[in-house]
Specification:
This protein is α/β, with parallel strands linked by helices. It has eleven helices and ten strands. An eight-stranded mixed beta sheet has the order 3-2-1-4-5-6-7-8, sandwiched between helices. Strands 9-10 form a two-stranded antiparallel sheet. The mean pLDDT is 97.
């Protein structure tokens, strides 16, 4: 099937990035969120990021204008019924995602493909709560979406070949690279990345090193572009904790036990950059370690 209209649920960090790249690739976008303020913030961020691409001569001013014109915002999930593909990019909580799909189902066309941008939750389980498990799959973009080249494609047990082929064609049209992952907890990238971040938090928790020394060690000693604690703040500590819980529950192995310090930060509401405090305090001109 040919996809021309894409619905995106969630205008936050991931959703607005997905809307950005899809609109730039020529798709008509319907971007949904529960608040107009969140939609306005999402579109404003897309505008700024497109302008950055114009200033770097990666796209033209006409490309930017056309992309923004293709993005339609809505507070109503029913407006996504006209689309060929829906990408859910809400918070990393399974109950929230299930509720979104249940609300969407009455409005969808028979051919519409449902996907989730989940970074860890079972695709098969999410699909089983819909009326179209064969037209359901994982569509996991990396953050920040306009910059990162990889998209993980995850088939549930019932996903058919036509659905997979259609989603892969979207990735190709976006100019990104797809990696096919099996439907196991956290898939490929986060199965490897999150335990490393969790171990960095344990290293801090046990007093082996400070925030700054841990991040500098991995940047200079392993040539990582960001330290693991800095990266955790960028991803969101609540998301990191949610993924570690999925790994721990799904694989029943104590090596995936979330560090108590990570849990404490999330309970404090210190979630990283999006709340201006995490392992670093971002409220001043220069980020300062909080521990």
């Amino acid at each position: 099937m040919e996809i021309s209209k894409i619905g995106i649920v969630g205008a936050g960090q991931m959703g607005n990035g997905i809307a950005h790249v899809c609109a730039l690739a020529g798709y008509e976008i319907w971007l949904n969120d529960v608040s107009q303020d969140q939609l306005d913030k999402g579109v404003a961020l897309i505008d700024r990021n497109l302008e950055r691409q114009v200033s770097r001569e990666k796209i033209s001013a006409a490309d930017k204008a056309s992309a923004l014109a293709r993005i339609h915002t809505t507070l109503h999930l029913s407006d996504l019924g006209k689309t060929d593909l829906v990408i859910e990019a809400a918070t990393e909580r399974e109950t929230v995602k299930q509720a979104i799909f249940e609300d969407l189902l009455p409005h969808l066309q028979p051919h519409t493909i449902l996907t989730s941008n989940t970074s860890s939750i079972s695709i098969t389980r999410l699909a089983s709560r819909t009326d179209r498990p064969e037209k359901f799959m994982g569509f996991h973009f990396m953050n920040p979406v306009p910059v990162m080249q990889l998209v993980e494609l995850i088939r549930g047990i019932a996903t058919d070949d036509e659905t997979f082929t259609a989603c892969k064609a979207v990735v190709d049209r976006l100019g990104k690279t797809s990696a096919t992952a099996e439907d196991f907890p956290a898939f490929i990238v986060n199965r490897i990345l999150m335990p490393m971040i969790n171990e960095a938090v344990y290293t801090l928790y046990e007093g082996v090193g400070s925030v700054q020394s841990i991040d500098e060690s991995m940047k200079l000693g392993a040539n990582h572009p960001m330290g693991p604690l800095e990266l955790a703040d960028f991803i969101g500590l609540d998301t990191c904790l949610a993924i570690m819980n999925v790994l721990h529950d799904g694989l029943a192995d104590t090596k995936y036990r979330p560090c108590p310090l990570l849990t404490k930060y999330v309970e404090a509401g210190w979630l990283g950059r999006k709340t201006e405090r995490g392992f670093y305090d971002y409220r001043g001109e220069v980020p300062v370690p909080t521990r």
